[in-house]
């Protein structure tokens, strides 16, 4: 099964409080649900770590009685979409292991690039693994290191120097709660206050929902310890730069989250505005592809002066398109999911705005739906540059063959999706809209140059942005 959008990966949460935390964790996972729908889990400390996990959305995976029965003031939680390891309960997180030091629970968002290498080396030494997930490698390395150091903080720093890749993790080591972000800060992680304690979460929107307050982003290469009355920062000195994933702003994060100092909604509208400047078209109406193209479309409409209208109604009760396992199912699913408003579309020149195109299958069907509803012309505008290369850092885009942009010019992609015209934002335009310097972002899937070494791929070097265009 291949996605037609970049897939979300996981969401993590951690909390230390003076009150019982299981309900807070449950709600945090509901808020982070867009980051992973395959499984959910909660681990709580109460004289040892107890965990509940299940498959599906958080409210399906975690039974109300089980959540209520989980009592404790320290805990972590996880929602999962697998980028490594298969989708089954064994791979659901948090992963809990028992050691002489105490229990350890770990929840991971990201992807460890050197996981296979570490696993092979450890297997040769006689280590055994239960799951195929890179997160199990991390928890076993951590447990082994703590057996040697007896010092959780030192062992977390040691773990950070052993892992190569992207990881925002929440970790409980016996009765201490930590969160840590990889030295390049690929995936988001932030800390905030709740009504009764301190917490870390993948996205700031969690703190709004819990009636708390966002404090700040966790820095690349930083470890934070959550205590009921404070957050303690532990600097590792391992960060040598930044590589925030541009897709968090383009598609993955919720529009009401603030990621590394930039409100996602504002970035998306700026993307739409820039797109309108770079890819103008004479048209009558701007129609977003709901929900992910909405903020981009608002920006496009503002800049172009072309009226914005919701011309596609979404059925909220159909699962996301990529969940269906077979191509044939997806065809039906797009139609189930989106219905055109003929009064908005009929006899109009329509600009359809989406956040990104991965394979192009879904957008082609949507163009057809809009044409069948009587559109005179259908112009597609896209809020990210063409995706040309795989992601090794936690987004499930693994092979070049799957991409619409592989081996095709923009005109050829336009023909493939049957649009009257097709226009993407440039890399430079995207970087400007995000508002961080290009060298603080990962743009690997767009530029084919990655911020860290990956076997068989180019590492980015300081390069003028216009050479990407
Ligand atoms: S390769 Fe693309 S999707 Fe993956 S981390 Fe980099 S920017 Fe994000």
Structural summary, described in words:
With 469 residues, the protein is an alpha+beta fold. The chain has 2 domains: 10-241, Aminohydrolase, N-terminal nucleophile (Ntn) domain (Glutamine Phosphoribosylpyrophosphate, subunit 1, domain 1, 4-Layer Sandwich), CATH 3.60.20.10; 263-468, Rossmann fold (3-Layer(aba) Sandwich), CATH 3.40.50.2020. 30% of the residues lie in helices and 26% in strands. It is built from 16 helices and 26 strands. It has a 7-stranded antiparallel beta sheet. Strands 5-6-7-8-12-13 form a 6-stranded antiparallel beta sheet. Strands 18-17-21-22-23 form a 5-stranded parallel beta sheet, sandwiched between helices. The protein is globular and about 70 Å long. Bound molecules: iron/sulfur cluster. Iron/sulfur cluster binds at residues 6, 186, 245-247, 391, 393, 395, 442-445.
CATH topology of the largest domain: Glutamine Phosphoribosylpyrophosphate, subunit 1, domain 1
Task: Output the CATH class name of the largest domain.
Answer: Alpha Beta
Classified in CATH, the superfamily of the largest domain is Aminohydrolase, N-terminal nucleophile (Ntn) domain
What small molecules does this complex bind?
A: iron/sulfur cluster
What is the global morphology? globular
